[in-house]
Amino acid sequence: MKDILVIHIGAGKHDPNKLKKYKTLLRNALSKTSIVEASDVIESSPLTNTGYGSSLNLLGKVECDASFITNDKIGAVVNMSCKNPTKELFRVFQYLDTLYESDETDLTSPVMLTYPLLKNLVPHIVDDDLVSEKSRKIYDMYKDKIFQGDYSKHCAIPHEISDTIGITYISDNETTIVTSSGGNFFKLPGRIGCAGVIGAAIARKKLDDCEICCMCSGNGEQIIKSKLAWEIANNIYNVAGDEYGKYLERKVYELNPKFYVGFIIILNYQSRVQLLYGHTTPTFYFGFRSPNQTRVILSSSDKMGHFTFGEYSLH
Questions:
Q1: CA 98, 102, 106, 109: dihedral to nearest 10 degrees?
Q2: Alpha carbon of 307 to those of 224, 260, 297: distances in Å?
Q3: Which is nearest to 72 in space by CA: 215, 201, 174, 166?
Q4: Which end of the chain is more exposed for a tag (fewer CB within 10 A), N or C?
């Protein structure tokens, strides 16, 4: 029986003084029995850049994007201001299922939605306590220079916080992939990141006897322009097992020589499940739970831009 949960909390530059907290966060999330419960743990933590503790936009507000794939069903909701974007994402699409289930309508249920414009249709959730002390401190420290147009010349916001988070759950009958993110600090209000674009931060492909899942995190604009998750999911199947690392390194840098990214690929065969990961960022933290093991991996690189690769057998 397959019961596999894979969670990453972003590719970026994690605070080395918080390693124990990151490990505890991942282990707590991996102990949950459902993807929504696991996402609640991740998104409620100020250690991640989604839900509570997200990066603040130009106006000092939290705006999160999220998307999902469940077998062949997909959906995305952007510009959410709520503590648990993944739970809200599923709630919105469950409502749409009831709205469009009638055989009397010729309308097709939407795939992508802007959350603020749903308030007159779907009962709205807007949480007021999304701004963490740390996010507020960073915002207040740099906002004057940003508004004066001096940011690019005189300051650089510390990129300690990671970017997009992702979760994949695989059972015998169903695979679900979700992703959410608060985006980058001082983003323009309304900016949509890779977590809101299917095929950018997440993708799924079924080829012969293999289901391929991919989750990406890092520079959102680079990931969107490259359709990175979709590119990887569509091409990795034909790569020989002993060539995965070399191929993925070449692929990433062909798409963008300065790619700032981390990704996880899950190859789900009938008799085995394999996890591949890679990143060009200083760190990439993730973990997985299978019937036989639970592991947390805090991957790091000492050299900026260096491609780091690894793989694990999950089943």
A1: 10
A2: 20, 10, 16
A3: 174
A4: N
Distance, CA of 126 to CA of 302 (rounded, Å)? 40
Which helix (H) or strand (E) segment holds residue 103: the answer is none
Cα 171 vs. chain centroid, distance in angstroms?
A: 20
Burial of residue 77 (CB within 10 Å: 0-12, 13-18, 19+) is buried
Reduced to 3 states (helix: H, G, I; strand: E, B; else coil), residue 56 is coil
Instruction: Give the 3-state secondary structure of residue 211.
Output: strand
Q: Which of 72, 76, 96 is nearest to 198 (CA)?
A: 76
Task: Tell the residue number behind the tokens 């690769």, with chain if given.
Answer: 309
Backbone angles phi, psi at 211, to 5 degrees: -100, 130
Single-letter amino acid, residue 254:
E
pTM of this prediction exceeds 0.70: yes
Neighbours of 213 (CB within 10 A): 26
Using a 10 angstrom Cβ sphere, with 0-12 exposed, 13-18 middle and 19 or more buried, the burial of residue 124 is middle
Q: What is the tens place of the pLDDT at every residue in 148-204?
A: 765 554 455 555 556 799 999 999 899 999 999 999 888 999 999 999 999 999 999
